[in-house]
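Below is one protein, fold included:
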Amino acid sequence: MIVINLDVMMAKRKMSLNELSDKVGITLANLSILKNNKAKAIRFSTLDAICRALECRVEDILEYTDEPYDNG
């Protein structure tokens, strides 16, 4: 399963969801879906924009775990 650690990086950078939304150009709703690990996909351009805004690497945001997907 792929885990999205967006909330962790936002906390480390002291950046709010609103601020990240403005910098990345993505809606709050879509960013919230990512932050809450409900996303089924992410565009590379969006991932690139998030990494630029948070000054981090892809592996700081995406993590692979052997845990099964939670469809709940």
Summary: The two ends are 14 Å apart (CA to CA). The mean pLDDT is 92. Helices lie at 6-12, 17-24, 28-35, 44-54, 58-61.
